[in-house]
Amino acid sequence: MPPTNPSSPDLRHADAAEPRRRGSRKSAGGITLRDVAQLAGVAPITASRALNTPSAVSPKVLQKVREAVERTGYVPNLLAGGLASNKSRLVAVVVPTVIGPVFQEIVHTLTETLAAAGYQVMLGQSGYENSREDALLEAIIGRRPDGVVLTGIMRSAEARKRLLASGIPVVETWDLTPTPIDMLVGFSHENIGREVARYLHAAGRRVVAVVGGRDERSRRRMDAFAQEASALGMTANDAPVPMHHVTAPTTLGQGRKGLADLLQRQPQTDAIFCSSDLLALGVMIEAQSRGIRIPEQLALVGFGDLEFSRDLQPQLTTVRIDGTGIGQRAARFIIDRAAGIEVAERIVDIGFSIIQRESA
Fold first, then answer.
1. pLDDT over threshold 70, residue 13
2. d(Cα 314, Cα 201) in Å, to the nearest integer?
3. Is the peptide bond before 249 cis (omega within 30 degrees of 0)?
4. Whether 301 contacts 295, CB under 8 Å
5. What does the alpha-carbon distance between residue 325 and residue 110 come to, in Å, rounded to a whole number?
6. What is the reported pLDDT for 2?
């Protein structure tokens, strides 16, 4: 075996750091910037420049440092750098569920828009019953991101107080209130419910029902729909609008069971509003299995305008929310505030659209 040249750093030197340096690391055996610099044959300050401001070093040095990083698997301590600059370059995004397709457009747009400005997204799942929201936000605030984007309005008094005290820019989305924590981009769930009821009434439907999630935002849509439908006389024998509630996140199977339940309770139902497109798809499948023609015998309206909605037979009438617009505005709010730019319009009602297709 040929002798090792002590003047030529290699990976073994990075692994076999002196006891003094090993003791100074936060975790034994962790690769440090000093190890990367030694392997690249440059000073630690030069390695730091190569990683943080590549234009400040020569292409040859930059290549050496990058090769050393690749060989060692070194990951820069962004928290340490963030403490020095008071910037973490992280934005926390909290959604009820990561498997809910209705939130994917917003998350995708936030990720792309923030990445273009040099930020990374840290995604958290709060659940629909807010059981984990306070603990999740406490963990997020402790990491001092440059911004927090929430799905819905913050209703926990304790979490609201902590967010206000942190001074971190906060954008609430997917809802509407005149008193946001900081900034808001959203829409009115109550207005959606009322407008869908009016839409179905104009289409000649007179006996309506609901299949909806038990989560708070869905219930407000459904309750507003039922109130407006009752005011328009869209119930059988002046009875309350029948509702079939399901747990969130909603599924196709719940939609099938929902229609079966509603038809048993109110056989003359001629229109159903669902709190999600997945529920509406389940209703449609169950209706077709029973020989119920859509829309001739039963009109159907969903929520979310998921990609499959326009590919169904018949195509699904649904409520469209501009998730791209919400994501872009929320990201812009965070980017501007992080840059010290005052946000003049802190509450944006992005509205909604009823997409008319064959099912209603």
1. no
2. 20
3. yes
4. no
5. 10
6. 45
Q: Cβ–Cβ contacts within 10 Å for residue 73, how many?
A: 8
The enclosing H or E element of 254 equals: helix 252-265
Does a cis peptide bond (omega within 30 degrees of 0) precede residue 242? no
For residue 349, what is the enclosing H or E element?
strand 347-349
Dihedral sign of CA atoms 81, 83, 84, 90 in order: positive
Average pLDDT for 291-309: 97
**DSSP code for 238:** G
Q: Is 190 helix (H, G, I), strand (E, B) or coil?
A: helix
Residue 158: CB atoms within 10 A of its CB come to 10
Residue carrying structure tokens 């839409």: 199
Joined tokens for residue 338 = 């992080």
Tell me how far apart the alpha carbons of residues 33 and 345 are, in angstroms, rounded to a whole number: 43
What is 34-85 written as a DSSP string? HHHHHHHTS-HHHHHHHHH-GGGS-HHHHHHHHHHHHHHT----HHHHHHHH
pLDDT in tens, 14-49: 333 333 333 333 434 578 889 999 999 999 999 989
State residue 82's pLDDT score. 54
> CA 292, CA 38: separation in Å to the nearest integer?
74
- Max alpha carbon distance in the chain (Å)? 96
Dihedral sign for Cα atoms in the order 151, 157, 160, 166: negative
Q: Which two tokens stand for residue 149?
A: 């984007």
**Amino acid letter for position 155:** R
The C-alpha atoms of residue 339 and residue 334 are separated, in whole angstroms, by 9
Report the pLDDT value the prediction gives residue 97, as an integer from 0 to 100: 84
Residue bearing tokens 């030529």: 8
Who wins on pLDDT, 348 or 33?
Answer: 348
Q: Minimal CA–CA distance to 355: which of 254, 280, 289?
A: 280
Task: Tell me the residue type at 284.
Answer: M
- Tell me what the pLDDT averaged over the chain comes to: 87
Does pTM top 0.85 for this prediction? no
- The 3-state DSSP class for residue 241 equals coil
Burial class (CB in 10 A: 0-12, 13-18, 19+), 328: middle
* Average pLDDT, integer, range 46-67: 91
